[in-house]
Design brief:
Length: 301
């Protein structure tokens, strides 16, 4: 008796294999390679230049690796380069940037997350109007507000201080962060919110026990955006602070654009890399969460 469970296959099954060197793959990987070189080549030049001495730099071959590696430009950029009347390098500006960035990031994220949570889950009269006005503020050019904010900070006695700059960064970060948090909270299952309300949880109980634990990706997105924007800011730093409280970017500008003495390109390159290390490190450490936060609702309407 024939085995009725056996099956006869007439041909291969599954997706058709793709060619390794198809036109599509060549175009795709070729484009990616060109873009990678476009961004990686300047970084490579900065690194190798920062590790050379000035006699080797004067030879003119900027692409060649250093014949003799030296870290003296890094030491000088950090603690000896002149940034005006003082010659203490980037160290003072670094700690000023830390004192500006940490409170600005914390305050703006806390306020924006509560705003986004309230606008997404606790509808109140005029919520849409308030949200529209708030988002409209994100598209007003910063330059338009420079002088009015100078007058406001002067009147409350905070002009030229780190505290005044922290307030400015916190306020300017709220519109876009509120949009991110509102859209993310709106993408979470509404049943969780309703179940918590039935169980008797209030505004803050739902926020701290349900929303915050489920929102690590969007908090990471907000942190990366704020750290990058605040740490790399130059305009607000040079306008709203004084020489004793300049952030790191202003100190870097003073080093690179100094017109006194010999132009030390290795020191300039080292100072530039040191200034960018903080946002780069944060992005590489938490990059996966950043992508998850964007994909999970950060840009949904």
């Amino acid at each position: 008796m024939a085995d009725t469970t056996s099956q006869t296959f007439t041909g291969p099954h599954g997706p058709k294999p793709t060619k390794a060197f198809s036109r599509r793959n060549i175009f795709l990987y070729g484009t990616l390679l060109v873009v990678t070189l476009y961004y990686a080549l300047p970084l490579y030049i900065m690194i190798v230049t920062s590790l050379k001495g000035m006699p080797e730099i004067r030879l003119g071959n900027i692409f060649a690796p250093p014949l003799e590696v030296t870290f003296e430009p890094w030491v000088k950029a950090w603690s000896e380069a002149c940034t005006g009347l003082t010659c203490d390098g980037l160290s003072t500006g670094f700690w000023n940037s830390v004192r500006i960035t940490i409170p600005s990031v914390i305050l703006s994220i806390i306020i924006a997350s509560v705003n986004g949570y309230a606008l997404a889950n606790w509808k109140f009269k005029g919520a849409n109007v308030f949200f529209t006005i708030l988002i409209f503020g994100a598209f007003i050019p910063y330059q338009v507000m420079l002088y009015p904010i100078v007058i406001m900070l002067r009147e409350i006695g905070l002009y030229g201080s780190l505290t005044g700059l922290v307030i400015v960064h916190t306020v300017f970060g709220m519109p876009i962060l509120t949009l991110l948090f509102r859209n993310y909270f709106s993408s979470l299952p509404e049943e969780l919110f309703k179940a918590a309300r039935v169980d008797g949880a209030g505004f803050w109980g739902i926020y701290f026990r349900i929303m915050v634990p489920m929102s690590l990706p969007i908090f990471t997105v907000a942190m990366i955006l704020q750290v990058t924007g605040i740490w790399n800011d130059f305009l607000f730093g040079v306008v709203y602070t004084g020489p004793d409280s300049y952030p790191m970017t202003v100190s870097l500008n003073n080093i690179v654009n100094s017109t006194q003495g010999v132009k030390e390109y290795n020191v300039n390159m080292a100072a530039t890399i040191i200034t960018g290390l903080v946002p780069l490190t944060i992005y590489f450490v938490s990059g996966k969460l950043f992508v998850r936060g964007i994909a999970a609702g950060a840009v949904k309407g």
